[in-house]
UniProtKB/TrEMBL annotation:
Signal sequence, renumbered to the chain: none
Organism: Actinopolymorpha pittospori
A GO term, aspect molecular function: methyltransferase activity
Source superkingdom: Bacteria
Keywords linked to the UniProt accession: Ubiquinone
Entry-linked Pfam families: Methyltransf_23
Tagged with keyword Cell inner membrane: no
Protein name: Ubiquinone/menaquinone biosynthesis C-methylase UbiE
Length: 260
């Protein structure tokens, strides 16, 4: 397994993707479900470029505290710039399996597209439970790789590309077991729902437009795929758009849980 790189270039690319209307809509849904309130202490595990963290900070206000945690210095630099002028925001360098906070430090926590990359998922969820107060809320969103639907003409090449793309994940099908993992870590799962990201057109600002480029860069040299194979895969998707039969969909699974 080889992770995606979140150096300065990778962080900037992620920031542009997170600015897309599709991801912004997902972020609004997450914020509505987490429902941070003025004065609360809220943690964002894997805060990345800081879009969600900034929204959390606005919700809790200066009487609260918003903490973002990410292992990437480049991501943390973007998040710091995005939350400039909010002294109640704290951005920390750290890992999900060893949260640098005392027991019961937070009223609520969110983690978006993070735990699918964490090898010790049980340990990470135990850490999340530890830093939440009893009754504290958590929201976790992750993707099942098998939920991806993309209309292509060359199905065999598409299968090979997606198989290589899975190498960037530790748990490509985490949502199937996440409810049980949360319960064993000391949470009561209060709600599970699916959030579908759907593109019927290959628009310049669509999530799938940037997603396909990220995938194409990653898969070259993996499972026998060459640059020519990645280029052919991209051309296939663009041809579907040109012919008016483009379709992309992927499911994100949302878990709401309370610390017992």
């Amino acid at each position: 397994m080889s992770m995606l790189r979140f150096d300065e270039s990778g962080a900037r690319s992620t920031e542009r993707t997170y600015a897309s209307p599709d991801v912004a809509a997902q972020r609004r849904e997450v914020l509505s479900l987490l429902a941070p309130r003025p004065g609360e202490r809220v943690l964002d595990v894997g805060s990345g470029p800081g879009y969600l963290l900034a929204s959390i900070a606005e919700a809790v206000g200066p009487t609260g505290a918003a903490h973002g945690l990410d292992p990437s210095p480049a991501m943390n630099a973007l998040a710091t710039a995005r939350t400039d002028g909010m002294p109640w925001v704290h951005i920390d360098d750290g890992d999900a399996v060893a949260l640098p906070y005392p027991d019961g430090a937070f009223d609520a926590a969110a983690s978006i597209q993070v735990y699918e990359y964490v090898a010790d998922i049980a340990g990470a969820l135990s850490e999340l439970r530890r830093v939440l107060r009893p009754g504290g809320r958590s929201l976790i969103l992750d993707t099942d790789a098998d939920s991806l639907v993309w209309h292509t003409a060359d199905q065999e090449l598409h299968r090979r590309v997606l198989a290589a793309w899975e190498e960037h994940l530790v748990h490509p099908r985490l949502p199937r077991t996440l409810a049980g993992l949360l319960r064993r870590a000391g949470f009561q799962v209060t709600e599970q729902r699916v959030y579908a990201m759907f593109n019927a057109q290959l628009a310049p600002d669509a999530f799938s437009t940037r997603y396909m480029d990220t995938i194409a860069r990653f898969v070259v040299g993996r499972q026998g795929l060459r640059e020519a194979d990645a280029a052919a895969w991209l051309a296939d998707l663009r041809a579907r758009s040109d012919e008016g039969d483009y379709l992309f969909s992927i499911n994100r699974y949302v878990f709401l849980a309370t610390a017992t």
